[in-house]
Design brief:
Shape of chain B: globular
Radius of gyration of chain A: 18 Å
Number of strands of chain A: 6
Distance between the termini of chain A: 36 Å
Oligomer: heterodimer
Number of helices of chain A: 2
Strand order of the largest sheet of chain B: 4-3-5-2-6-7-8
CATH superfamily of chain B: P-loop containing nucleotide triphosphate hydrolases
Strand content of chain A: 25-35%
CATH topology of chain B: Rossmann fold
Number of domains of chain B: 1
Strand content of chain B: 15-25%
CATH topology of chain A: hypothetical protein PF0899 fold
Largest sheet of chain A: 3 strands, mixed
Order of helices and strands of chain A: HEHEEEEE
Structural class of chain B: alpha/beta
Shape of chain A: elongated
Mean pLDDT of chain A: 93
Largest interface: A-B, 44 and 32 residues
Mean pLDDT of chain B: 95
CATH architecture of chain B: 3-Layer(aba) Sandwich
Chain lengths: 115, 219
């Protein structure tokens, strides 16, 4: 369950950001690559556990799953279902992976007293 | 509600520890391989063979959920080996590796193997500060492992396919798995070996020797 340590890290990162505190943190916007080895549902579950433990109430987690981004040897760049997909232009599987391996906290939303 | 941009990778504490380890390895010119494979695929057997047959100055950190049995096997073949018992943890972390490094004489080590806990999922996510991730497969596991675990094999610069002596007894499409390895990671080096029979290690010996020379030139 490696998602738990990532969840702790993300909450800590959020709380270290200027203007963000346990009292006003409401939403974490996360991008989760399909090749990251991280399960989005498990990550969300873990973030809720960590938030609860730190007394952060009513936090929402929005996870955008990012498909693998491939660049074929023919020059075509494309998003694929998986890394064994054929290039839509030349039909080969000779590509390098240019995206979809990372998980990162993109932004947070805080309650600033306005709706 | 106000939105605040953060744009920070999730890895956090582990990433900081991994960079610290990496700096230490570079300063001491140690080539580091993080070996990842299923339980029973032969990670330890490959290190045993290497210990007995290579002149490269190697050491190993060996992760297991319980016991130091694998580290003892390597130690018995005169390679310094340091066990980490994770007590249930399904992967090693950069922090665990960092605390072990104080015990290892890095000045006298050209190549450090980190034998991760037997698992194809979690270890692929955690950077330990290594130069390369090494996947270890074995013939009886079947030829679909690369397709089933693309997160790992999109990160492995070296792949061992072990237990090749069992090929006559298994339905195993070697061409297919090699093709999958290269699709997942272009430029990957593949070593087809039988660790217990000592077969197919010529290319591996050359690879290790090449890295030894590179490291020694820097010492």
């Amino acid at each position: 369950m490696h998602e738990l340590s990532l969840a702790e890290s993300m909450i800590n990162t959020a709380l270290r950001t200027d203007g963000v505190g346990a009292d006003n943190l409401r939403v974490l916007n996360i991008k989760c690559g399909a090749l990251s080895g991280v399960n989005a549902q498990t990550l969300e579950f873990c973030i809720q556990i960590v938030a609860e433990r730190l007394g952060i109430e009513n936090v929402s987690v929005v996870i955008e799953e990012v498909r693998p981004q491939l660049q074929c040897s023919c020059g075509q760049s494309y998003n694929a279902e998986d890394i064994f997909s054929e290039c839509p232009r030349c039909g080969k599987t000779q590509h390098r992976i240019t995206g979809g391996k990372d998980v990162f906290l993109e932004s947070v939303e805080v309650n600033d007293g306005q709706s | 509600m106000a939105r605040v941009n953060v744009d920070t990778p999730a890895a956090g504490k582990n990433a900081i520890a991994a960079e610290k380890n990496r700096r230490l390895f570079r300063e001491n010119h140690v080539f580091v391989m993080n070996m990842i494979g299923s339980p029973g695929c032969g990670k330890t057997s490959i290190l045993e063979y290497t210990a007995e047959n290579s002149n490269v100055r190697c050491a190993a950190i060996v992760g297991d959920v319980k016991t130091a049995l694998d580290a003892d096997r390597i130690l018995d073949r005169n390679m310094p080996a340091y066990p980490i018992e994770t007590g249930g943890g399904c992967h090693l972390t950069a922090v665990q590796i960092g605390s072990m490094l104080t015990r290892i004489d890095l000045c006298k080590t050209d190549c450090l193997f980190i034998e991760n806990v037997g698992n194809l999922v979690c270890p692929s996510v955690f950077d330990l500060g290594e130069d390369i991730k090494t996947g270890v497969l074995s013939v009886p596991e079947g030829d679909e492992k690369v397709r089933k675990y693309p997160e790992l094999f999109s990160r492995t610069d070296v792949v061992f396919i072990n237990k090749t002596d069992l090929l006559p007894h298994c339905e195993y499409d070697m061409e297919k798995i090699e093709r999958d390895c290269r699709t997942a990671r272009p430029g990957v080096k593949i070593f087809k070996v039988s660790a217990t029979k000592g077969l197919g290690f010529e290319d591996w010996a050359r690879y290790l020797e090449m890295n030894r020379k590179e490291q020694q030139n820097g010492k």
